[in-house]
Every structure is written in C-alpha cells, then in structure tokens.
Specification:
Layout lengths: L1 E10 L2 E10 L10 E6 L7 E2 L3 H9 L3 E2 L1 H9 L6
Parallel strand pairs: 1-5
Antiparallel strand pairs: 1-2, 2-3, 3-4
Amino acid sequence: MLTVRLSRGGRKNDPVYTIVVTDSRKSRDGGFLEKLGQYNPHDTASLKNVKVDRLKALVLNGATISDTVRTLLKNQKIALN
C-alpha cells in the first residue's frame, strides 16, 4: 500500500523534511518512489514545491496520507478533494 509521508533530512538540530510516496512497510528514511515537496519547520513558508496535482492523483488511486502531512496541507489551505 502506498503512503504519502515525511522523510527526515537536514543537519543535527536543523531538520528538513521531504514529502515522499513510499510503500507503507518501508522505514521512515528508507527508499521512496517519488518526491512531492518539502517541509521546513523553521521557515515561515513551511511547504515548498508541493506537487498538488500528483498528490490528488495518488489519493484517487488509493494512497493514504499520514496525519502529519494531512495537517500540513490543511494549514496551507491545500485541498485534495
């Protein structure tokens, strides 16, 4: 089953998260299928380069979205319906 979730990157004490599509059985920072955007918790414009059309297509085909990604999209007023 495909899942849209965050993968951690960046430096120690300065994380940068990437929104990725991965198999739900893989580890958090394991292999992924596609990058869909970035989230920087220390930046005012927290979401960058989000591929909304690709997200919508994945959700329509049955991919699940993690709670954290769903909250981030909701806060940025990005609707997937």
